[in-house]
Amino acid sequence: MISRIDTLDYCAYYETHFDIIFKQALMKNLSLIIFSLFITSLSGYALAKPQSDHPASITELTITSEGHRMSGLIYGAAGEGLHPTILLLHGYPGNEKNLDVAQAMRSKGWNVVFFHYRGAWGSEGEFSFLNAEQDVQVVLDYLKTNAKKLNIDKQQISLVGHSMGGHMAIAGILNNPTVKCAVSYDGANLGANSASATNQKKGGLLSDEKTAKMWLDYTETLFMLNGWSAEKFKQEINEHSEKLDLVLRADKINSRPVLLIAANTSVIPHDIHIAPLLSALKATKNSNISYQLIEDDHSFSSSRDKLITVTANFLNAACKN
Asked: If one looks up domain 57-318 in CATH, what number appears?
């Protein structure tokens, strides 16, 4: 016969173990539910559709210049049809790439193309200033040839460049009558001081001793530029400064819009690089030249929002149909 005490002990035992079993089952089921929800959310993420039929995109590009492959990419603007397009040109050697400008301008309806010149950052071939000028023209031809595939309005291609890339942007528009506009961020003139008013040689970019030492010392650190050295820098400037001089080409602008943005630093001395070019461009027939000073370091580190706003206002007003 089972006593009342035994019955109470049994009930207590059963109640305790039932509670444990129930909680274990509940936790197991809860874990399964959470896991199922997690998997469902991942599936939804992986299979999520773009917000529109023509979303923004990014596409890697390989562009060949003189038989050498150059790496690049295009930030494709959202929306159907062809878009105005910026070719964004990096400086020397290209540590600052200004890709915040690329993202901002894409959000405003512009495609933005970025690439590395021959010999720079893994692109094949050897780097030089004249090669880089040529590479810009090669990329422009590539964009026009592939305009439909890349959703580019080839009548609305503009150049934006920083430092050495500023030189390449101005050289690019002067060397190509189909380029719509150009913007230079504290841009160099790699052929600066190539000739006096009487066309006598003045020593080019290296004629200023302080500037020359800065450029040559820095050049010796640029391992990411293949086949390049301070000695080759001096040789190219000494032999081709007139060919590189933007001032001597200024009359090819043909009233197209240009914006020069200066930072006024010792990296790109204003009186050597920017002021003479600004004067030469403004002196051309029906000139359409704008200028803005943004007091900052050479990379506009504290003024990125202002730099983007000035760039966007100019391009949208002067360079976009």
From this structure: 3.40.50.1820
